[in-house]
Amino acid sequence: MHAPCDCTTMADVRAEIDRLDAALVGLLAERARYIDRAAEIKAGAGLPARIEARVEEVVANVRAGAARRGLPEDLVETLWRQLIDWSIAREETRLGPDERREELGR
């Protein structure tokens, strides 16, 4: 592992980016397992996949984290909203449609 300032060639930079990409994929797989567990819990509680207050809480958290790390908040929000939508779609495949759940989640 090299710090960015210690990379002296494009091969060094590419190796570190590949390492980080592999780690990110691993984190996404771990996040998906939590999404699957959330779907199980929501099914038992009669909750919908999408709970708007939670969506906005997650977005606010990642925007704040992006700001602390000097990243563009709007870009990070866009990426996370796509991740959230994917996660909700994954939950919905397990929960199925239920109008009563939608009312409880509001």
Care to describe what's here?
The chain has a single domain (9-105), classed as Up-down Bundle (Chorismate Mutase Domain, subunit A). The longest helix is centred in the N-terminal third of the chain and has 36 residues, at 10-45. It contains four helices and no strands. The termini are far apart. The mean pLDDT is 92. Helix 1 (10-45) packs across helix 3 (73-95) and helix 2 (52-68) runs antiparallel to helix 3. The chain is mostly helical and 106 residues long. Residues 4-95 form the Chorismate mutase domain. It is an enzyme of class 5 (isomerase).
Name the descriptors.
106 residues; mainly alpha; Chorismate Mutase Domain, subunit A; 4 helices
Q: Tally the structural domains.
A: 1
Largest sheet: none
Structural class: mainly alpha
Roughly how much helix do the residues carry, as a percent range? over 70%
Task: Tell me the span between the first and last alpha carbons.
Answer: 46 Å
Percentage of β-strand residues: under 5%
Identify the CATH homologous superfamily: Chorismate mutase
Give the mean pLDDT: 92
The CATH architecture category equals Up-down Bundle
- Which fold name is given in CATH as the topology? Chorismate Mutase Domain, subunit A
Summarize the SSE layout with pairings.
Layout: H1 10-45, H2 52-68, H3 73-95, H4 99-105
Helix pairs in contact: 1-3, 2-3
EC number: 5.4.99.5
Protein name: chorismate mutase
Keywords: Isomerase
